[in-house]
Amino acid sequence: MEQPGDRDAPVTCLEISVSTGKADELFGKGWFTNHPAHSPHDESWLTFAHEGPSRKIPDRVWARHPTRAPEGRCVFDQATNGGTLAVGHERWMFHDLGAVVCAYGESEAGPRGLYTLHPDGRAARLVSEGERDWHCDISRDGRHAVVDTSGPLDAPGRGWQNAGQVSDVVLVDVATGARTPLARTEADQHPRHPHPVFTPDGTAILYNHGDPSTGEVAVALVPLPRAVS
Questions:
Q1: d(Cα 185, Cα 151) in Å, to the nearest integer?
Q2: Torsion-angle region of residue 202: left (phi > 0), alpha (psi -120 to 50) or beta?
Q3: Is 212 helix (H, G, I), strand (E, B) or coil?
Q4: Nearest residue to 198 via CA among 213, 179, 219, 184
Q5: How many Cα atoms sit within 13 Å of 207 on the Cβ side?
Q6: Share of the chain above pLDDT 90, in %
Q7: How far is CA 28 from CA 24, 94, 110, in A?
Q8: Distances, alpha carbon 41 to alpha carbons 63, 93, 221, in Å
Q9: pLDDT tens for residues 215-229?
Q10: Phi-psi bin for 72: left (phi > 0), alpha (psi -120 to 50), beta?
C-alpha cells in the first residue's frame, strides 16, 4: 500500500513483481488501508484491512479479485444484535478461501470470539465464543486455531477488564469450538503480546514470551494423537 504519510490521505494499492520490480496500480481507497496480502489458498484474491480504532470501523476485513471484486469488497458484516462487533487481527487460511478473525471482548455486541469468514459469499461462522480473544492463527490443514487473550482466560469480565499483564495461549478445535489452554505469559500494549502462530506442520505454536527487549520466543506443543510404535 502506498500512502503519503497522513492516515486520512487516499491510499493506492500496488502489486510489485518480485522478478522484475515492476509495480502495477490495482486500486485506491480514500481511507487508511493496511495489511495487504495474497490469500495463500488462492493468490488471485488480495486481502487487506480498513485500519483504525476497532470500535469505530464497521468494515474491517476486505478482499479484492481482478474480476469478481476489482475495487474490493467487505467480507464481514460486523453488525449484530445490539450493535457492532469490533474485529481485527485477521489471518487468512491455507486450506480454504477465507480467514479467521477475532471479535474482541470490547465489542459492544456479541457473540464475541473467533470467527471464520469468506470473500465468496459464504456466511461468517462463530467458531468458538470467547470474551478476551486478541490475536489468532490457524493451522494449514484447518483443524486447529490458536488465540491469545487480553487477560487471563478464566478472569471475570471481558476485553481488558481485570486483564493485568497476563495473556493465555489457547488452542481451539475448529470443528467443535473446544478450547485447550496451552500456556500463560506476560502481555501489555503493542508490541508486548504473544501473537501466536503455528509451525508449518501444525505440531507446535510459537509465541512471544515475556519482555520483548529480550527477543524471547516460546514454543507450545499441540496435543495431537501420536503414533504408538
A1: 10
A2: left
A3: helix
A4: 219
A5: 30
A6: 69
A7: 12, 27, 32
A8: 13, 6, 25
A9: 688 899 998 775 555
A10: left
